[in-house]
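Hello again,

I reread your note about wanting to compare the complex against the isolated chains. To keep things tidy I'm splitting this into two emails, and this first one only covers the full assembly. Below are the input lines as submitted, including protein chains and any nucleic acid or small-molecule components. They are followed by the predicted structure of everything together. The single-chain runs will come separately.
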Amino acid sequence: MNSETKRILFGLYDDDEQVLDAVRKAKSDHLDIMDVYSPFPVHGMDEALGLKESRLHIAGFIYGALGTLTAFGFMTWVFTRDWPIIFGGKPYWSVPAFIPITFELTVLFAAVGMTVTFYAVSRLWPGAGNPILHPRITDDKFCIAFDTTTCDEGEISRLKNFFEATGASLVETKEVSEEA
Amino acid sequence: MSAVVSPIREPLVRGHKTYHQITEDICAPTERTPGLAWVLAFTVAVAFLALYVFAVAWTVWFGIGTWDLNRTIGWGWDITNFVWWIGIGHAGTLISAILLLFRQKWRTGVNRAAEAMTIFAVVCAGQFPLIHMGRLWLGFFVFPYPNTRGPLWVNFNSPLLWDVFAISTYFTVSLLFWYTGLVPDLATLRDRSKGLRRKLYDMFSFSWTGAAKHWQRWEYLSLVLAGLATPLVLSVHTIVSFDFATSVIPGWHTTIFPPYFVAGAVFSGFAMVQSLMIIARKVLNLKDYITIEHIESMNKVILVTGTVVGVAYLTELYIAWYSGYIYEQFAFYNRVFGPYYWSYIGMMACNVLSPQIFWVKKFRRNIFLTFLLSIFINIGMWFERFVIIATTLARDFLPSSWSYYSPTWVEISLFLGSLGLFFTLFLLFTRLAPVVAIAEIKHILKSAGDQYTGPEATHKHEAH
Amino acid sequence: MNQFEFTSRQKRTFFIMMGIGLVSMLLTYFMDDHYKHLRFWTNYLHNTVFFAGLAFISTFIIAAFVTAWAGWYVLMKRIWEAFSLFLLPAIILFIPLIVGLWLGWHQLYIWNDPDVVAHDEVLQGKAGLLNRGWYTFGTLLIMGLWYLFAKKMRDLSLEEERNGAGPDFAYHRKLRVWAAAFLPIAGFLSVPLITLWDMSLEPHWYSTLYFWYTGASWFVSAMAVTVLLLFYLRSKGYFPHITDEHIHDLGKYVFAFTIFWAYLWFDQFMLIWYANVGEETAYFKLRRDFYPVLFYANIFVNFALPFLILMRNSTKRKVGTMVLVAIVVVLGHWVDFFLMIKPGPLMEAQHLAGEHATAGFVPGFTLPGLLELGTFTGFLGLFGYFVFKKLTEAPLEPANDPYLEESLHHHA
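Full-complex prediction:
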């Protein structure tokens, strides 16, 4: 693991509608946005940034199906092969009695699987050490960040002009180290 | 913003808040030294928790014989408490999940606290079946694991085992749902703090940054978890009701039990949320976020579910008559006029009759009355479970084994002690994490803040 | 196009449908005279209950949405208003059943036979409710009361349309009071009515969940019928402001209540199966042993199929899939009611005639035949004619509802 330093230029906006307009402008100006940070999910940001729809639900479906099969298969095996029990004069393979546990494990597998997947693919876990550009981003500021590690002066001043034109209240450069 | 809001709706965030003001207001309780009220409350809660530990130790040391259960009445306060706590543990997921799917925006003010409450209530609930087993340290026997006895598996056909799966799943999923919602707000706390506190909050917030892609996935995850939690929350109390309804005991074996238990759970859960939030909004100074509109909306849910429960009570009585089955008829006669008639009266008065005052708007918006009533309902719902459990068992098929049961000091201490456990956890929560979901309140500010909507609006939005 | 025009072509179609229904019913009546024309009378009861239920549950839907301060549905509220007014024709549809009860035209309900009751202690115990008087006045008074609410809510909605929202939304605030009051009335009074209409067809059997189960079946059907009607009217150019978002929400309701229906089905079945009390299992044993096709198809068509199809969000927005699912669901729940209503009277009648019920094929009972579908077509024609007639009476998209803007800007 070698550590790399990134130079990030970011601007802070005061309002969600303002940052949304800025993102749209950046897109039409073909500026390469590294990321946008906000204190809450901004409505319409996904489309403005052109983010692809999340595929978490597909993962969720697979985990859920796995839970269904695990529960139903296991109970079937136990009561028809391993240790059959008669209860209340019912057949060994009593499907109605298996349904509650099958349902619970379906939900459990889907929920746990999806949540773990979410944190893993988002690189979020205790001690992940993601760079925090500005403390007000989780409060009331909306941030657009550009990776300027390889940018020349001309490109940087173009970005600064962009921030000025779109009404950013603060523009800063920050060096962050990122493990690659 | 594309949110168009009807002018008939009342604003849900008062005081012309800005985003920053919201952060300040909601983070404040976690950042200042606790006030006298909190310290006193916490001391009392911990004292009761100590009582709980003592009572559990007593039960384990001397055995279940220290309770007044007998061969006829094998379930008493223990299972009553279990069902009561589980019921209370339904409100959080209900508010967060079902109201999210039904687009009831007012949920945003109360969902975080309600979810926390859910988890703590489930923690309390889970204790009682374990204590009842007597040998607490063998509690893990309830899980199916390869063992040296055959392996002899647990009985997957037993509703008691379904309970094990339902409650552990419910606890896990509620925890994930609540914590995932909490992560961005913990990051807010992190960015406002320094030193060790900052390091800890960074750890607990999983190093959250607020990146757009994260938010997208986060919203997606919240929605799917809400979708999963909705049938889950229904299933939990359904399965608890199966404990009774799969039997052949008259008064227990009735098909309406599953949805009726769920309605009752929602009812008691909302009552507990009301009790807690009415105090919290005052003590933590959150009146602009948990407004009178929130309280009124919850009172409406209480009225609806109270009436649903009423329909179910009467349907049971009616079918007992209609069935023409003498044991069924006797079971219900016994409920109303038997030795525990007082608990039936308590149940009816608290659960069905008292919420009817909420037909009057003035009463729905009266804080003191709401608080009083929420306590009534908590008591009434406890009575409901007691009626179902003790009354039914007290009058067996064989009159020679008829019996009466009243709790010993150990059982009472266990119940009061579990309240101590619950409040200790809840009070700690109010100090360690934001009681109101910060990011979500900011998200709805422009559609529900009083500067944007309602009679005092100063910023009108153009619809597009 | 906001004013609905009931074209003569549509009228003709509905009349043809009603004609088919009438012919089917006459054929059923004269071709099959077993047990006092039981096939005809069960068909008539089955469809009357199904469509009366659609009207009742639509009233309930309006009341629930108004009480919950929902906004999204406002554009389509006229459809449910029109459905809810069908309560009035539904009352009239019950008249032949009631008169028949007094004059002995049919033997749907064995509790109406004094000879049977004289030898049956259980039925004597229930005679306080299961009698002609209660059936007559219960049906007329309770349905009359429901119609009163449906009419009042419709009137307030139309007054709002004509006179504007009123000072401080006066009409809507009044509507809220009527809507909230209807909810407990619906909850309490549906219990005796469903007992009298359906549950007492097998008067020895009882289940506390039966009422909510019936209600859930009506609910899903009503939502599916709404989807079909909306798609039809949109294809004719009406409802220009109803978008995929609204359809998506209706799809969610069909999906959610499909699950809810299955949940209630499972609760009722599993508890009775598990406890194995003879009086209760009789109901499911009859259906499982003598009506196995419908018994299993019911779960598959009304749960598995819509559940798997509607699970994905995108399918709730596709016209083709939604229409398919809605048709399947409406027919499926019609069959659900078939299975609730038809087996009981046949079994009781066979029993009364001293015959042994066997698993053999009984035309019009074991499976719905052409005559059953014809009868359904007739009722559907009547329902459609009435609903279209009511749709002409007011602009389709309401103008003055306080939530209109929210509905216009709805995002699912």
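For quick reference: The first helix of chain B runs from residue 19 to 31.

B.
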